[in-house]
Amino acid sequence: MKISEVDFLIVPGLGDSEPGHWQRRWSERLPNAKVVRQADWHKPALAPWVEAIANDVMMATRPVVILAHGLGVLASVHAALGLVDTKVRGALFVAPPDVELHPEVPPAAAPFSPIPRDPLPFPSMLVASTNDPYCSIDRAAEFATCWGSDFHQAGDAGHFNIQSGHGPWPEGLLMFTRLMQRLKS
């Protein structure tokens, strides 16, 4: 699938993606990219966020690929399970937080529990770090297995944000390319 043939939905996590974050950079460089917005990035509500994702999928004029980070991954998974006859062709999920078991996850993320465990209706890749402050690598692997996602363990990469040194994130572009190649078939 060619990049020019896709509408990209970028779904930031809790607090939105700050300037310099890989999602912001990608949104500025990818043609047909749209950032899914919500009313309050610091006190997110699950239902409106899921509705915003579903609406953006419905309004897309081409097949959709979701690029989600952090809590945006869980919002996207909740939304995906409610979509029928979806235009979504794939998703790149980066650093989902374990809102069920991890003690460092901010309380504002609690409404996103329980984490869905059903297989997703489209191909996906989940990228996780061995030292993510919000999710153990074992739990990330469990989520990938449940969702039917390809799993990529990225080593000690933190939460894939500015604080962990992931502004441009060229390795992420390689994983994104791999996902797009998979979607060709």
* Lateral arrangement of strands in the main beta sheet: 2-1-3-4-5-6
Structural class determined from secondary elements: alpha/beta
What is the number of strand segments? 6
Architecture (CATH level 2) name: 3-Layer(aba) Sandwich
Give the N-terminus to C-terminus distance in angstroms.
8 Å
| Rough outline | globular
CATH topology: Rossmann fold
Question: For this structure, what is the CATH homologous superfamily?
Answer: Alpha/Beta hydrolase fold, catalytic domain
Number of domains: 1
CATH class: Alpha Beta
- How many whole angstroms does the radius of gyration measure? 15 Å
- The low-confidence parts are none
Overall average residue pLDDT: 93
Organism: Devosia algicola
GO molecular function, one term: hydrolase activity
Protein name: Alpha/beta hydrolase
Keywords: Hydrolase
Description:
Keywords: Hydrolase. This is Alpha/beta hydrolase. It comes from Devosia algicola. It holds the Pfam family Ser_hydrolase. InterPro entries: AB_hydrolase_fold, RBBP9/YdeN. By secondary structure, the chain is α/β, with parallel strands linked by helices. It has a single domain, classed as Rossmann fold, CATH 3.40.50. It contains five helices and six strands. The protein has a six-stranded parallel beta sheet with strand order 2-1-3-4-5-6, with helices on both faces. Helix 1 links the parallel strand 1 and strand 2. Helix 2 packs across helix 3. It is globular. The protein starts with 6 loop residues before the first strand and ends with a helix. The mean pLDDT is 93.
